[in-house]
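User: Can you predict the 3D structure for this chain?
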Amino acid sequence: MPHFDLPLDELRAFKPALTAPDDFDAFWEKTLAEAREHDLDARFEPVDVPYTAVDVFDVTYAGFGGHPVKGWLVLPAGTSEPIPAVVEYIGYSGGRGLPHTHLRWAAAGFAHFVMDTRGQGSGGTVGDTPDPVGSAPAVSGFMTRGIQDPHEYYYRRVYTDGVRAVDAARSHPLVDASRVAVTGGSQGGGITIAVAGLVPDLKAAAPDVPFLCHFGRAATLTERQPYREIAQYLKTHIGEDERVFRTLSYFDAMNFAARATAPGLFSAALEDLTCPPSTVFAAYNNWAGAERSMEVYAFNDHEGGGPFQQAVQLRWIPGHLRG
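Assistant: Here is the predicted structure, written as structure tokens:
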């Protein structure tokens, strides 16, 4: 696939107007306040695993609506004093998977908290968290569930779960609550940006080829799922464009980026048809933190830099957690 989006020099300058409605901050303050009315009830059950280098805990905590959300906590074996933590969010349709797929950050000496994504986990990696909330008619997938109303939209629950995942990680006695970073790829990257915009005291945020950015452009630029779910919905629900994009404005990662204060490390791939590079740069160029950097993979699709980007993160995140 040749390059299809803006040239790189234009991408670096691409900073579209934000779409956040006037009550954006009030909406999220109320949403998180309501979630925190429920006891976090974070439980960490030791898991018997055949590893000698790490200790693994099966996590359950109360997310949006007090609903139970699963996760993993992986610690370097024998950890006895609080250490910095990396909280990770998962890509679209995937779940928390199995513990042995999450050893990288513990091997680097950090606590690693992996959040399961409610309702997902049957596309690539297994999940264990149901979403007990239904919705009005929606296209198959998750992008249009509850899209008629921001209070009912699926990602209101997911982003809240993401913030509560940080709360849960910080509640563990072997996590240094003052030194927490967030990261994730694709959908996990979009959640990372949202959480960075909602949690003001993170040490770092590293969204990798992030999804959920600049919905208005993405829905008209790519034919690839999951953004295509929005177009499919509007193809059937003719005349609802304004209503749909107003709902999405409460969840657009570029609006959260404009509220993020942590250092940010992004990546974009110039042949990425799933998360077009201009949508990633829309969030990156609106990032409010004083420090930001972008890794560009010129000839890659949605896999981005893969292990090369992981290597960059393994140098960059520790510099902020240990500094």
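The beta strands are 43-47, 54-62, 68-76, 83-89, 111-115, 175-185, 204-208, 264-269, 292-297. The radius of gyration is 18 Å.
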